[in-house]
Design goal:
- This protein has about 210 residues and is α/β, with parallel strands linked by helices.
- The protein has one domain: HAD superfamily/HAD-like (Rossmann fold, 3-Layer(aba) Sandwich).
- It is built from 9 helices and 7 strands.
- Strands 4-3-2-1-5-6-7 form a 7-stranded mixed β-sheet, with helices on both faces.
- Strand 6, helix 9 and strand 7 form a beta-alpha-beta unit.
């Protein structure tokens, strides 16, 4: 049964935060196009290009990849050290853990539950005849969508924004970090470290535990 109220809310980015990987790069490996996708990912993380535009261009590079690749990619995902200690500590203190990601439900749906995540939101890839079409379904989860997700979940859980923590590493996380009561830069790019309330990590999410309410 889903929790309906909480003492506080912690919302994390997924790629390079909840997990150590960039999932779109793992998928691009399957298409033999990792290098070009990685270059666009880095530019988007630094805030040099619009996230939605960059995501669409990167997903186009995945066209033709079989859905069988999802299972192989899931097997390569590496949880960030300390993530389970953090989620356990949040739950022990009466909090809820959310993840909002510019990545993909096809991977996060299988990874998030085992890491103690209570709710999550991500993009979905379009599939036809068992292969990726190179398109994203519906509205893209960008910086604005991340900030809205944090605010919506806080309202649903009756948690004031001052009792929310946002943890991220890239420019796409800045809006949700600004909305949260505490914005934490983890394994982050320079612009994100400069904007954050605090800089933590870069290697172990259990560093967040002393900051929990």
């Amino acid at each position: 049964m889903q929790v309906t109220t909480a003492r506080f809310l912690v919302v994390l980015d997924a790629d390079s935060t909840l997990i150590q990987n960039e999932v779109i790069e793992l998928l691009a490996d399957e298409a033999g196009r990792r290098a070009e996708v990685q270059a666009v990912t880095e530019a988007a993380m630094r805030g040099e290009v619009d996230f939605a535009t960059s995501l669409r261009s990167r997903v186009e590079a995945l066209a033709g990849v079989s859905v069988d690749a999802f299972e192989r990619v899931r097997g390569r995902v590496e949880p960030t050290p300390g993530v389970r200690a953090l989620t356990d500590a949040v739950h022990e203190r009466g909090g809820v853990v959310g993840v909002v990601s510019g990545g993909f439900h096809e991977i996060l749906d299988h990874v998030a539950p085992g890491l103690g995540v209570d709710r999550w939101r991500a993009n979905r890839l379009t599939v036809a005849d068992g292969v990726l079409t190179g398109q994203v379904q519906g509205e893209i989860v960008d910086a604005g969508a991340k900030a809205r997700s944090l605010a919506e979940w806080a309202t649903e859980l009756d948690v004031p924004l001052r009792a929310t923590l946002a943890i991220g590493d890239g420019a796409n996380d800045l809006q949700m970090m600004a909305v949260a009561g505490l914005g934490l830069a983890f394994n982050a790019k320079p612009a994100v470290r400069e904007a954050a309330s605090l800089v933590i990590g870069p290697h172990d999410l259990s560093d967040v535990i002393p900051l929990l309410p």
